[in-house]
Amino acid sequence: MAKFFSEKDVNQLLTMDEAIKSLEEAFIASSKKKIINIPRNRIDIEGSNFNFMAASWEEKEIVGYKSYVAGSKGLSFHVCIYSLKNNRLLAIIEANRLGQLRTGAATGIATKFLCQKDSISMGVFGSGFQAETQIEAISNVKKITECIVYSRNLERSQQFCQKMSEKLKIPVNSTSDPEQCAVNKDVIVTITNSQEPVLKGKWLSPNTHINAAGSNVANRREIDIEAIERSDLIVVDDMNQAKIECGDLIQYKKIDSTFDWSNVCLLGDLVAKKKKIPENTITLFESQGIALEDIAIAHTLLKKSIKEDRGIYLN
User: Fold this and answer.
1) What is the reported pLDDT for 309?
2) Distance, CA of 122 to CA of 173 (rounded, Å)
3) What does the pLDDT average to over 74-98?
4) What's the 3-state SS for the chain?
5) Percent of the chain having pLDDT more than 70?
6) pTM greater than 0.85 (yes/no)
7) Mean pLDDT of the 225-237 span
8) Exposed, middle or buried, 239 (CB in 10 Å: 0-12/13-18/19+)?
9) Mean pLDDT, residues 127-151
């Protein structure tokens, strides 16, 4: 019998640590070609768009999808999981919080494997809902000694910083100067809805790791051309999805025709330790947010719910 999980259930059942462990296992399986991931498809509707993405994980005997409607009228996210044992529906999950966790967890994993320092200073561009779990996830894998946040809305940024400082017990401070989020920072996160680059390559220091997590639309960019040119290693969560959604790289290829997707690395191959990271390099993780991540965390949620007797059984 299938279960329904509310946003409250997701928030109370799942921790960031569990989300990170779940995605690490999923990325290793992906590197071993044991995952099928279907990139996001969109239907544009006046004032909204419908999004659909799917994945299967045969070892876990699950297949499922995430669908959501987003636009000026609001947001609605759901994940559905089916059993490959009997092809029956296992769960319907309200997935706004789940999506926030998986986006942060992917960044945490990329930072864990691409940033070579244990204690870091970091800068964050953006102070919205998704920015919260970006900092939380990184704090799970690294010791954050300093975090500077830039947002176009300084008042909201200050409120965000106070909230995150209290929650994570680390120094999080706002700035009105975006350059301060990049210069001499070990880790940088861009998690905005900006149409134009917020991070400039000229601000980067050697051995910086960048997580570009805000743009998953082909005509939108968060980092400029120089930031890409200075990146010694570029990593994506899924190659097929990056080729149709990663605005930073898609727009760069239009300018530099020599850009070769075959030189881009998969995050799963890093987690599976198939690729060694050179020292003293600038690294870039382009996070699109893929169905595999949603399905993996949903599977963890479902297993934990059985132990804790959570969720509503559907007739």
Assistant:
1) 86
2) 11
3) 97
4) CCEEECHHHHHHHCCHHHHHHHHHHHHHHHHCCCEEEEEEEEEEECCEEEEEEEEEEHHHCEEEEEEEEEECCEEEEEEEEEECCCCCEEEEEECHHHHHHHHHHHHHHHHHHHCCCCEEEEEEECCCHHHHHHHHHHHHHCEEEEEEEECCCHHHHHHHHHHHHHHHCCCEEEECCHHHHCCCCCEEEECCCCCCCCECHHHCCCCCEEEECCCCCCCCCCECHHHHHCCCEEEECCHHHHHHHCHHHHHHHHHCCCCCHHHCEEHHHHHCCCCCCCCCCCEEEECCCCHHHHHHHHHHHHHHHHHHCCCEECC
5) 100
6) yes
7) 97
8) middle
9) 97
pLDDT digits (tens, 9 = 90+) for 196-215: 999 999 999 999 999 999 98
For 151: left if phi > 0, alpha if psi spans -120 to 50, otherwise beta; the answer is beta
Length of the chain: 315
* Strands lying side by side in the sheet with 187-190: 172-175, 143-150, 119-125, 187-190, 209-212, 283-286, 233-236, 265-266
More confident residue, 130 or 71: 130
Q: Which residue has the tokens 């006046």?
A: 46
